[in-house]
Specification:
Layout lengths: L1 H35 L2 H31 L4 H34 L10 H22 L2 H31 L4 H33 L5 H7 L1
Amino acid sequence: MRKKYDEHLELLGNMLVEMGALIETAIAGATQALKTQDIEQAKKAIAYEKEVDRKEKDIEQLCLKLLLLQQPVARDLRFVSAALKMVTDMERIGDQAADIAEIAIMLAGTPYIKELEHIPQMAEATVKMVSNSIDAFVAKDLELAISVIKYDDVVDRLFNTIRLELVELIRDNNSNAEQAMDLLMIAKYFERIGDHAENIAEWVVFSITGKHKDIDDIENEG
């Protein structure tokens, strides 16, 4: 019975990795569509949202099955409970990648008011956070999870840089305002993706330590 349970736990980890790969691809596709103003690429990125939703439901069903199969020990209960919380954040990341792609479609065919420099950097940073948070969960790597939480500061700094640049462009020329607001919304979506990746990492910390607490306290305990 325990062997079967362990196999299901391994399957859960694999399914989370697959869902993570889906949202990483969606983010990358939406970013590429934005950079190249490619409407077809944007539509492909939007299509990933349905696949992400299906994967979320499959993982939720497996988690419930694991909870009902036998009385899980504390470590397993934390693992499955954290997975249930994580997929909610992962599904929202898929939604936000689709939102970015939809704005990319709106902006297609119109010259950008500035070179897209920091937005692709935000995209790269958020993909890194998502990937590392899921890797940390599967590997039960506390140090990696904590590094993801700290890395959210990088995303926040990039957002503030973009916001200040766009405000300056509006001040220089009011005709820039409409597109500036669209670009700011894209940056805000990336900031939210970073926040969700940070949430995932915090659930990883819980799955390993059994506690929600300040990461400095956790590091001091180590």
